[in-house]
Amino acid sequence: MTRFAYFCGHEQWHPEELVRHAQLVERAGFDMVVVSEHFHPWVDDASASGFAFSTLGAIAQATERLQIATGVTTPLWRFHPAIVAQAAATLDRLSGGRFILGVGTGENINEGPLGYHFPKYAERAARMTEALEIMRRLLDGEKLSYAGDYYVTDRAKLYSPATSRVPILLAAGGPKSAGLAGRLADGFIVSVKDPAVARERVIDPAAEAAAEAGRPSPTALTTRWAIMAASDEEAWEALYPWRGLRAPGRLQAVDPTTLRRRADDLPREEVLGRYARASQAQEIIDIYLPLIEDINADVVTIQMASVDQEGLIGLLGAEVLPALREAAAN
Fold it and tell me: In the prediction, which pLDDT does 80 show?
């Protein structure tokens, strides 16, 4: 059965606002919140940057049935993978088994400000291979002595262990990460612009890798960015805290000021043109239907910006979710 998630972005909203949004999302009928984990946001003039693991703990206490997931954290530099496993086990306990650990190979905007070298993808993937093994083994209860090329543990053990099995999902934008997700994780997280491209580059390679490894079919958590706005001016206002997300050099940038300036040097219509747009409920439904009909995603994440976010959540619950659930049931 398809589950529906709402994206809570630390790059725009302060932690207390995100906790409030999560409560509204639960009342609106969503199944899950996917919470971003960043050190720096995408711009410096209209942004936020709370500590996601604290926010997730607060959300776990402020809600009753919502699943909560990191979307995503990087267990490679700022956090040793064993520390991420400890955080995951703690959140599992605080939420009564509702936590899902989403991880990814990172962006320099989170690692570079703290003095870490952000290497090319090959090293990031090698680090993630070790990190996935360490996290899985610790979360499964093992006392772990591990000597890898990048990480070491010496009789490490989680003494406040998870009370249930914590799923680990790996963010993937191409076949290499998708293959890693299929072999070593429980599923993948993929941002979908074109369903056919997502299937070719991520969904099918992940499924093939899982099958070759004798593992179950991976869970597919899909996301899609959209803007709720009645005009270009309103769309720009809604997107303002996120406009650096599509700026050139996004993966390597350290300073949100840099991305803000690069985004503002682009034609506004070019930035806006990189996002799906809606001005009413049916248009939102049409944006997210392909994730159900073309991909048959296990989780559909609504990732939207609006000038009235709480009003948007109400609209999603009243008009969008019922239609999407009906489509998923057919």
Answer: 98
Identify the active-site residue in 37, 107, 111, 130: 107
Contacts of 231 (CB under 8 A, 6+ apart): none
Amino acid letter, 112:
G
Angle formed by the axes of helices 52-62 and 81-95, nearest 10°: 10
38 is catalytic: yes
Catalytic residue among 38, 40, 80, 111: 38
Q: Residue 17's pLDDT is what?
A: 98
pLDDT in the model for residue 162: 98
What pTM was estimated for this model as a whole?
0.98
- For residues 55 and 18, the answer to whether their CB atoms sit within 8 Å is yes
**Low-confidence residues of the chain: pLDDT under 50:** none
Token pair of 135, please?
């996290």
State whether residue 29 is helix, strand or coil: coil
d(CA 192, CA 276): 11
Torsion of CA 275, 280, 283, 284, to 10 degrees: 70
3-class SS string, 123-182:
HHHHHHHHHHHHHHHHHCCCCEEEECCCCEEEEECCCCCCCCCCCEEEECCCHHHHHHHH
Residue 110: how many CA atoms within 13 Å on its side-chain side? 24
Contact 108, 124 (CB under 8 A): no
**Residue 186, helix vs strand vs coil:** coil
At residue 58, the pLDDT reads: 98
